[in-house]
Amino acid sequence: MSKECDVLVIGAGIGGLTLALALHDAGISCRVYEAVPELRPLGVGINVLPHATRVLGRLGLNERLGEASIATKEAAFFNRHGQLIYREPAGIPAGYATPQFSIHRGDLQSVLLDAVRERLGAHAVVLDHKCTGASSSDDEATVHFVDSKENTYTAKASVAVACDGLHSALRKQFYPNEGMPRYSGVNMWRGAVHWKPFLSGATMVRAGALVPGVGKMVIYPIRDNVDAQGRQLVNWVAEINAPQPARRDWNGAGRLEDFFPAFADWHFDWLDVAGMIEATSGILQFPMVDQDPLPRWTFGRLTLLGDAAHPMVPRGSNGAGQAIVDADVLSRRFAELGVGPQALLAYDKERVKATGDVVLTNRNAPPDKILQVVHERTNGQPFSSLAGIIDDAELQSITASYKQVAGYTVAGLEAAERM
Ligand SMILES: Cc1cc2nc3c(=O)[nH]c(=O)nc-3n(C[C@H](O)[C@H](O)[C@H](O)COP(=O)(O)OP(=O)(O)OC[C@H]3O[C@@H](n4cnc5c(N)ncnc54)[C@H](O)[C@@H]3O)c2cc1C
To answer: CA 8, CA 32: separation in Å to the nearest integer?
Structure first.
């Protein structure tokens, strides 16, 4: 059997599809193999920050993404009583060259998939091929698949990149004793509902606190003008400390009674949070999980990318963004060094430590640390003023240090653009 392309991409999620587009842009041939027989617009909201929209913009996708999403204008932090703690501009209003998109994961995946099919051809994405393992020899990578009827297939390429998400088959092959994803002690209930615009109409809200007996909400609009009343599709995530993790199924259904009591009195003058939750149908549930950073992703002609390489708790809106940045870096290293182990090792060198730091910072010092700090200093009570509780310098330093670690300061991205 001969090689069918330069790069075999495993998984047609956010990272795999972006990689296919970036490779095509660099003149490198690839084919994407995806486990599910049909790609449906699954999930709810996701944020794509400027380090990732910079990559997607270069791939010519930001116009389409802009039509399918909300360009986020600001991030705002509130306590569980609805009192504003801190707000800062986001995306273009914050001085970035490219926007921050709040978007339905299904819309993001559809924009990427359509572009892959338009540019690489209708057969560039092969569905119903679940990767079961892979091997590497001196000159090729061999990947094994099974379909939903239990037929098996083999494909060969110069290298194979596992973009197969949280339950990656190749990660398990490389690290068989790693164990299950690590539960953070927090479960998440997620939903999206047609609702009136609130605050700026493009605000990403974090409210409450992740402490026992209280809960945290993340709320932001992801589509504009979804009906004749000018409502938006508003995405929300309710997070609560819980001893047992929910089932790790992205499409797992959640029950209102399991989390609503923590938010039942959240009727703020700027948003009726409780009313919004009650109006939502099709609530999903997922545990907040990650994995310890790995020492390496590359083994011969095989490597990992995105959640397969560095699953992280979604407290910094960086899961999709880091997968997109991985795809950009890997395609550049291939273009510079050729499609082979040398480029894979250069990619490892640039991304393993950088993303490991993001995983650990999402655990220990994500942007919503602001909420914990204020909750502790006020004992969870309303405040009449923030004076003596926290000042602007401390607030700014929390979000600024997160941006530094995650690689999306305005200055850092401008410098990267000049290189
Ligand atoms: C169905 C689904 C819904 C999600 N919903 C949300 C959400 O609402 N909010 C959020 O923040 N994040 C969500 N995520 C996760 C988010 O997409 C990722 O954290 C992030 O975008 C990183 O992308 P990724 O490409 O590494 O992984 P993913 O986007 O998870 O993509 C992985 C892809 O690999 C495929 N795959 C898995 N195993 C195999 C295999 N053995 N062989 C071949 N293909 C395989 C999967 O079907 C999927 O298409 C969801 C992921 C999935 C799969």
So the answer is: 6
